[in-house]
Amino acid sequence: MTSSARPLLNRRLAEFGTTIFAEMSALAVRTGAINLGQGFPDTDGPEQVREAAVRALRDGRGNQYPPGPGVPELRTAIAGHQQRRYGLEFDPDTEVLVTAGATEAIAASLLALVEPGDEVVALEPYYDSYAASIALAGGTRVPVTLRPHEGAFRLDLDELRDAITPRTRLLLLNTPHNPTGTVLTRAELTAVAELAVERDLLVVTDEVYEHLTYDDAEHVPLATLPGMRGRTVTIGSSGKTFSFTGWKVGWVTSAPELVTAVRSAKQFLTYVSAGPFQYAIAEALALPDSYFADFRASMTAKRDLLSAGLADAGFTVFRPRGTYFVTTDVRPLGFDDGFAFCRALPERCGVVAIPNAVFYDDRAAGAPFVRFAFCKKDEVLSEAVTRLKA
Ligand SMILES: *Cc1c(COP(=O)(O)O)cnc(C)c1O
User: pTM of the prediction?
Assistant: First the structure.
């Protein structure tokens, strides 16, 4: 232990203590509560994909360092997926990069593209790694707050426009959006695209929930809009789409110069990862459309089960149009602070949730909101609903 007065943790990271997920998961274990805090499924993805990973391991594929950009089979499968679903053509050799989950893709993109002092505009509430990655890159984060309006959290395009300054380098978008469940519409994304072109901005777009949209919500990849393919870094991940969050297989698709830049940072973070799993995810991406349709149908039912239960228990529910989270307002239950609510909930009801305020710079704007994950077995969700009503 150093005796110097200087703090050990550098000042770029000093504001980021341990995440709320650690505190709430510990609380769940101590109280035996149902953990609807952290967003990971409690059942694994398709057996055939698991078997593909076992086969790759046994056959000695990927047990040694795979190629830096990812194994060719996976890069080809990612390009095929973008082509089939969205009509986006990417060259697997120069326009696709495999990463250690979306988390590394986000970090590498920011480390590669942001100079110290650059401003990065991000939607608030934001996924928890965004703030830390912007800080590690030496950037300044400029949040644009999604505000509740008629049952959903909406982007105010004027606020977005006002947030852009001559120092803005990059927009960091996330749609479908965690934690609010908002799916940006084609009209909103078109306005964002026009702004990006007009102000000559790069955009990093986190689309890890691309397959989890509900009702008539449509996922529109920003890169499909006019002027965007050459300035957009699109991030995807197998974790959420195939329910293998532990495998950490993610990817970037973009123009060759941008992929080269992101790879320059990525090579010094992990260099490579998840060798055998890359082969398995290549097979997963080739699953028939029925897999994706069944997955969406099953998640829609879970969303409905938990949303209805929360509404019955007295919460105001923002019915999500994407992701596997539902955001609620706890004020009808007599609370105005989501932190206090979430700290008390495990003892009171045996359920763990996450206060959305942790995803805001403007903590007051997020204070009354609490997030529940519904990527859990139906019987677990039913039991949670029973407990919450009691
Ligand atoms: C889960 C999640 C990630 C992280 O994805 P990994 O592939 O597990 O690294 C990134 N962005 C959002 C919005 C997420 O919810």
Answer: 0.97
